[in-house]
Amino acid sequence: MRNDLFEFIVLICHSRAKLTRKVRGRRIENAFSYLSPMDAKPRVGVLGGGSWATALMKLICNHQQEVHWWMRSEKAVDHIKSYGHNPNYIQSIEFDTNQIAVSTRLQDVIDASDYLIMAIPSAFVDQTFKELKPKRLDQKVVFSAIKGIINEYHSIPAHYLHNQIGIPENQIGLICGPCHAEEVAKEQLSYLTIACTEYKPAQNMAESLACRYIKTTTSEDVFGTEIAAVLKNVYAVAAGICHGLGYGDNFQAVLISNAIQELSRFVDAVHVVHRDVKTSPYLGDLLVTAYSPYSRNRTFGTMVGKGYSVKWATIEMNMVAEGYYAVQGIKEMNKKFKVEMPIMDAVYNILYDKISPVVEMRILADQLS
Question: pLDDT tens digits, residue range 69-78?
């Protein structure tokens, strides 16, 4: 297992300390000077063809004259070029076909963009890069909108992008909620947090996504927000399982209040910096994923709680529930840190050890307070 989390954290801290020493009292000239000039608008491309990628494309199109979009499906690409909407996800979002350049050629999208938003489901990220072997990613700023673990390495996406793809750690960012793609499509007021160790790329991306119904904030806590984005899917599966078993709102409130404490313990053990987990990218993202009917992880958990097997729940949904893969990655990571995580363990036991949800949740209920 290639899980060099400590190395990644040290690299981030070293990079920031080095930058601070070099620029104290002067204007920051950072690693992004080879991109568009600082007063120019960076060109943004989107990688992925799912609901979240489609929603993010809608937002980026508010600010860019031309947006490049990569997806694997040639049929979907041809449909979008002809009819201006994604035939597979959120068909209500309509695009100006003169504004978007949608393609199955990954390298073309990379070369045409300064900033890339990666919204490929975590289960397919490593396969995509190994098959298509894209070049020059280390010359781009890459924002992960992946809400899961790269399971082949039990790695969060930022760590994977640095260690396996070779992107410098200060050119990696994160886009996180609380925000559902379906509500973006309906133009309902939503909030996004943009995290990057460098302020300027975070601010540029925040401006590229903000609009009348999207509020954006920036953060330096790439590692913490990404771990939280992974864990909230696990806890949403747990909430769904309990819902499927018939547990009520009272128990759900106790479950989620314990989940945020568990999340805080794990993130603090892995990456010790000051953060307030009661803010939107941590608690807010957890709440919307655990309670919303749009949450595929909650839906997946509900089906498991009602007696569906993992296989049949996945087939029935026809969508990826990131929490299924995430719980295995977190379980492996926690072998090193040994944080007390009864909710995560319960979800793992149900999904991977095939323990009865009825039995496992009864045991869990006795551990919560």
Answer: 999 999 999 9
